[in-house]
Amino acid sequence: MGVNVDNDLYFGIDQYYSSGIFLEYGKVLKSKKDSIDKDQVLVSHHWTLGQEINTPSYHQTSRLSKMDYPYSGWLFLRFFEDRFKKPDFGIGWGVEGGTTGADASLARPIQNNYHKYILNLNELSWAYSIPQQFHFNFQAKIRWGIPIIKRLKLVQESRLDLGTFRTGASSRIGFQIGNLEGLPFFGNRLEIIKKGTALFLGKIFHYNYYEYSLVGNLNKTNSPFDFVANKFVDTLQAGIVFYSRLWRAHFVINSISKRLVSERSNRHPYLNITLIRLIN
User: Fold this and answer.
1) What range does the domain containing 92 cover?
2) pTM more than 0.90
3) 204: domain CATH number?
4) Residue 125: CB partners within 8 Å, gap ≥ 6?
5) 90 with 82: CB under 8 angstroms?
6) pLDDT tens digits along 138-181
7) Could you tell me how many helices (H) and strands (E) the chain has, helices first?
8) What is residue 235's three-state secondary structure?
9) Domains in the chain: how many in total?
10) 137, 190, 251, 272: which one has the fewest Cβ atoms less than 10 Å from its Cβ?
């Protein structure tokens, strides 16, 4: 089990995709026969209770014309199944359901209380926000790694999202170096229990067909905003992961290009920190 946090406050900013908090639990099941070629596969199940918060760059304004990004929140529960035939190749699928809305997602109260009581800052206006709606999404992933030289491999993760909250595709590709087997930067890998360290340097190429938290419904009829989303977005990544016998720690720096044409900044940095405790 573990906690996974995205935040941009480490860079002295608080805007756009400003916060993500994910509580995670996973377990390895007994090996099963693959339905295609009857090989043994290692199956793991993962549950995530998560929240994402988006914020415009001008926090205090109540003028719609000054907002370059929506206030929005997303509270969800996700189930995901991973199937690995070997450490460097796996597939997975998952489903998630949840709600948007300033208060229904708990985004406004959590963010404003955090600003007021922890950071000693003014509350954010939340004058306009993406409206409340329930959503259901499907997700699929393919992950692989190809050794290049000792301790260095090319790794890639393809992802597909289909649903009322988010529809799109992405390819995450980069180089992994270290003494850890498998793909430690792609999800919470429970297939191998081994001490070690690995580094990652790579990039995510996103194709965004539609995302409710940015523009509201597909026809933009229920949102106070009139934003135009970029179809193609990229994220630069650099990270390090540490594995001990019972603990794991991931640190990944992200720099994402504009998701909306209206954003005042060309790129937005945030840091992901993941801490995992293994339970026998």
Assistant:
1) 2-277
2) yes
3) 2.40.128.140
4) 59, 60, 61, 62, 71
5) yes
6) 999 999 999 999 899 999 999 999 999 999 999 999 999 999 99
7) 2, 13
8) strand
9) 1
10) 251
